[in-house]
Amino acid sequence: MTAPVFLADGVDLTTAAEGTLIELTGAEGRHAATVRRIRPGERVDVADGAGLIAECVVTGTGPGSVTLRVQARHEVPVPDPRIVVVQALPKGDRAELATETMTEVGVDVIVPFAAERCVARWPAGDRAAKALARWRSAAREAAKQARRARIPEVTELASAAEVAARLRAASCGVILEPGAAAALSRLDLPTHGDIVLVVGPEGGLSPGELDAFAGAGATQARLGDSVLRASTAGAAAAAVLMARTGRW
Question: Which of 160, 144, 162 is nearest to 152 (CA)?
């Protein structure tokens, strides 16, 4: 059975050599001790969310804390090619669902995008920071559940010009379009660099956005005959890319 993963909040794993004792406290310590009921002798992994993992054995527990002895430490390399999904804002709580499923699949970077035809709108002021925090929290929790060594980066809200710049700099840019002639499963894909995938809103990208992204070098591609929701299309397409690039 695979060991559960906890995040190293407040613990510097770079100095956690073999035999070192580390303590999980705070939210992670409470989750391990109270929710998961981790007990001495059990194996757990502690990750810093940036690729570093400490393989540990529980030596003791307390109210809201767990003490661990490091057995080994290793670093998971940065994936190559990276999968970057530009996600048009879904409606309601589907933003968190989209972030969770893309994280579980293995997406490396998630870029929120307020497309012209999005029904949902990114809030302004302090509420914008809270909206971004919800996306990032969803990615963090999903990364733990999926036992990922790296939490995907969730960027600030991107404009169409910023999305075009990402596409221009990518090794491959793809726009998901249900009516596209090319199938995503048959595109020629690079073995290195960023593959940037644009998922539009359920009303589709505007002609202006399509022209701008095509001008930045992006290719239109379809997933299949069925049309997915904006909140699930990114995860489904990312799964295709993960398999095609050998990351799965």
Answer: 144
